[in-house]
Amino acid sequence: MSRPMLEIVALEKTFGELKVLRDINLRVATGEMVFVIGPSGSGKSTMLRCCNRLEEPTSGAILIDGKDIVGCSSSALNRMRLEVGMVFQGFHLYPHMTVVANVMLAQIKALKRSKDEARERALAMLDRVGLRHRAETMPTQLSGGQQQRVAIARALALDPKVMLFDEPTSALDPELVGSVLAVMKDLKDSGMTMLVVSHEMGFAREAADRVVFMDGGLVVEEGPPEEIFANPKAERTQAFLSRVRA
Amino acid sequence: MQDFIRLFFNLEVMAQTLPLLMQGLWMTVKLCAAVIALGLVGGLFLALGALSHRRWLRWPAFAVIDFLRALPPLVLLIFIYSGLPFAGLAISPFAAVAVAFFLNNSAYYAEIYRAGIQSVPAGQTEAARACGLTTGQTLAHVVLPQAVRNVLPDLLSNTVEVVKLTSLASVVSLAELLYSANMARSLTYNASPLVLAALVYLLLLWPLVRLVSRYQRRLAA
Ligand SMILES: Nc1ncnc2c1ncn2[C@@H]1O[C@H](COP(=O)(O)OP(=O)(O)OP(=O)(O)O)[C@@H](O)[C@H]1O
Ligand SMILES: [Mg+2]
């Protein structure tokens, strides 16, 4: 495996007494899409949120393209966050700005791009997710699926090296899920490195390079999707998969 | 009846004292501008302090807000105007009123901002920070615009209170609207200037009050 774009080393996270992550080790190669599955409360979101330090790791290291994001200064952190795009289950678009302004804001304030440059880039990214024609709309006028695609465009506009997705389709009506997954597939095909928490098994089979099963703050098992889904080795994985399929 | 009209709605007296009242109105406007502007800024800082996760910022901010809300504004004003000179700090009536009501109103504006900021979902801050924005940028471009929009009726309401509050300045002989009207009354032995002053306050504040209730109805809908 070439040098990983994202490497999580001995990551631990405790909330007070509660040990949520215990010794997580995970490498995501450049251009790889890794799927994370596991029961509710297993620590999937916490792990993802540690990767851009929305959650402060208790110990361990997280390397983005070789640079440790844990323990860097707050100005260095803001720079490194530009390299890590994040997409949330609840979209979190800024409701007081137009769609295109949503995609422009961090480009101007954090990347210091000019307004014109940011706008051009924003429109290109909106085009990529199929929403250029909605650039001047307010986010609340859009469907959930459209909002999530704008959120993806907002992250992409900062030219991240890695994209993190936390259950990007869980809040969507079933008929809107496909459009978001299509954008993610396109992103994967263009070579983006992606770490995705999601239970879209069909999509994982089709697009993921690897699937990681987490439980109780540990990586229990990992492997190619066919293998994990068809022949899970660990008992906990088997139990989880049979529950999800039921 | 004739007497009543002559003593309360005497157009001649009103016309005669109008210039004096307009001077008073101008003073009221200047006072309001100072108190509102300072209060909006001071209130924001107090609110940010009260919401900080740093204890050494949060506790003093809460203490100041509570103290200022519990202290009657008139007590504060008289203390600043008549009490501080004992410590060698004599200030003009205008400065005394501006400082006293700025302090009082900062606390009220702070509570409104605090409610507004807390009404913005945490996901907004997280999304902005994840995009590399600093704390300050997140506040300025993402959180505050939404917070202010959510509490605009309350901010306006409090601003109406500020305007009403400035009439207390007559106590320290600052020639604002009420003081000027009362002076005109004693000069003319006629209550009409007071009626006129009341009308001016009404004219000034009624549109604001309408605006507030329109907003409130729209938010409720
Ligand atoms: N800020 C927090 N403070 C305290 N406990 C937390 C916090 N965030 C998460 N937890 C706890 O950590 C555990 C793991 O949460 P996490 O959200 O990472 O799980 P998850 O695998 O993403 O679950 P789900 O599938 O429900 O999203 C849970 O028990 C949760 O209650
Ligand atoms: Mg989660």
Automatic annotation (TrEMBL), chain A:
GO molecular function terms listed in the Swiss-Prot or TrEMBL record: ABC-type amino acid transporter activity; ATP binding; ATP hydrolysis activity
Topology in membrane: Peripheral membrane protein
Compartmental location: Cell membrane
Annotated Gene Ontology cellular component terms: plasma membrane
Domain ABC transporter, residue spans: 6-241
Main localization of the protein described in the UniProt heading: membrane
Entry keywords, A to Z: Amino-acid transport, ATP-binding, Cell membrane, Coiled coil, Membrane, Nucleotide-binding, Transport
Coiled-coil annotated residue ranges, if any: 101-128
Family: Belongs to the ABC transporter superfamily.
The name this protein goes by in its record: Amino acid ABC transporter ATP-binding protein
From TrEMBL, chain B:
UniProt key word Transmembrane helix: yes
Pfam families: BPD_transp_1
Record-linked CDD domains: TM_PBP2
Top-level lineage group: Bacteria
InterPro entries to which the protein is assigned, alphabetical: AA_ABC_transptr_permease_3TM (IPR010065), ArtM/GltK/GlnP/TcyL/YhdX-like (IPR043429), MetI-like (IPR000515), MetI-like_sf (IPR035906)
UniProt KW keywords: Amino-acid transport, Cell membrane, Membrane, Transmembrane, Transmembrane helix, Transport
Family recorded in the similarity comment: Belongs to the binding-protein-dependent transport system permease family. HisMQ subfamily.
Function, as annotated: Part of the binding-protein-dependent transport system for glutamine; probably responsible for the translocation of the substrate across the membrane.
Protein name: Amino acid ABC transporter membrane protein 2 (PAAT family)
Organism in which the protein naturally occurs: Cereibacter johrii
